[in-house]
Amino acid sequence: MSAPEVEALLAGPAGRAVLAELVGLDLFRELGEPVPGGVRLVQDGTAPAGRRRGKAAPAGQRRGAPDARAGELIAAAVSAADLGELASCRDRLLLLSAVANVIEGRQAAAGPYLAAARNALGPVAEALVIAPAARWWWEPVNRSGQRWAGAEGTALPRGAALAAAVQRIAAAEAQEELDAARGQFWQLRRRHPISISWWSAPLGGTVFTTTGPIETLPAVELGCVEDSAGEEVREVWAVEIDPGARVREIGGPADWARLAAEFPRDVTASRQHDWDSWTGQESTWVLPDWPAVSREWDGVHVSVSGYLSASGFAIAAGNASTLLAGWEPDQALWLKDVFAKAEYVAPWRGSPGSDALPDVTPPWQRHRAGQPPD
Questions:
Q1: DSSP 353
Q2: How crowded is residue 65: how many other Cβ atoms within 10 Å of its Cβ?
Q3: What is the pTM of this model?
Q4: Tens digit of pLDDT for each residue in 211-237?
């Protein structure tokens, strides 16, 4: 495993938060302080703490600069963990649980502290990247084993209907940007306290995405979601991707920046209020123009490592900026029907998110707590 993979985990706020989660760090409890309210996604300390799709907290409500005591607690948690156990971990669901917890907001308030103590998290990153259970985090889309998990009563979209839907939804998003530029967006905001356009999710979070299966979980997306609505039923299909399908891989911020810069769609009017507040910078904002992308690529895949290293902060894209938000780890967006095979598997019932993953103390944390391993 190379040094760049370690650096990628340390460079972004989501990656650092997963490293903290893996060593069992509960920073504010150990500091004896309440967790600041209104925090949802992980941040790096450069922007006001805000809630996804909600109003960002004013800068004056932010915590102060990370203090020495927090840094000492982070270093102590890393030192106490049995990183050898982490490095030899073969339980993929156990490691994915840490990712799921971070997606749901764990460690979000600790973002500024983790940024300041990134060097202390280095040994955790080094152990994680050699763990057999994490090897797939850096792999491209698994073409032979994808899972589509649609809403109850729905079927996997196929053929020309899929391409037509891409065009239809892209047109709706373009209209939203036009309405925002004309000032109608702000009228809508006055009627709706929740932001209308926060995500850079693929095509507005529609059903044209898949993730891979993982152990007993039918699809990664069933364990990694930001806003679970509680128990629901999903229709799960097994999908094989044509070997000749052109898939653009997003393995980090540079990959997302290149995609957005090559196929830019200006979303400044609809996103600037939230994204300026969230990232702490004013910018022209762009996202990929999906119909344009579809002329050269059949799909786009964000690996687990790509998600952890690129999500939640402003990324330069040419003369503009972009943001990876609303995607999920190991998620592939399909712009055309390149499914060589699709078979219905079964309905899945449960609560998507961390509830669908193991809730156990990892062995490297049990050692820290003085508990014997299983």
A1: S
A2: 10
A3: 0.88
A4: 999 999 999 999 998 777 788 999 999
